[in-house]
Design goal:
single chain; mainly alpha; Arc Repressor Mutant, subunit A; 2 domains; 8 helices; 0% strand; elongated
Amino acid sequence: MDWQDVLEQLVRERGPALLRYGYLLTGDAADAQELVQDALVSVLARKATLRVPAAVEGYVRQTMLSSYIDGYRRRRRWLSVRHLLASPEVTDDPRHGVDARRDVVAALAGLSPRVRACVVLRYFEDLPVAEIADRLQISDGAVKRYLSDGVHGLERVLGPVAPDAPSESHLIATRSTR
């Protein structure tokens, strides 16, 4: 059985179950379809040697979960730092955006080089902690500590970072009590 046969059989036999799983994760039918399609492409591109649909389904489900969590974290991170990049007020004055950028640059300049590097790689380049650690040749824990220090340093200069954004633990607790 080649990968195309595996894909056809998986979609035919387990497609509805995968869509339901995606819907449970995302809460939206269109997002669920996209999540399933992305996971199928990702798994079959990497695991072209898999020939058993049941084994492929396990990989697809795990990929869907990982993709959903990564997307959630990315959205949450963006919501927590987007105010640092642009002001919510609409203005025709181009100096306003320049002033906001200067504030961010000045706040970043106040951070130590290692902390600044971690903040820029995480929030502006959107790299995961493990990749930052690899690039800077430090531990994941050190990256997390530098990120925490960096966010607190930026908050001292620029103001609080998204005070109304719910924490991940709050969202998980809320979901588990329903």
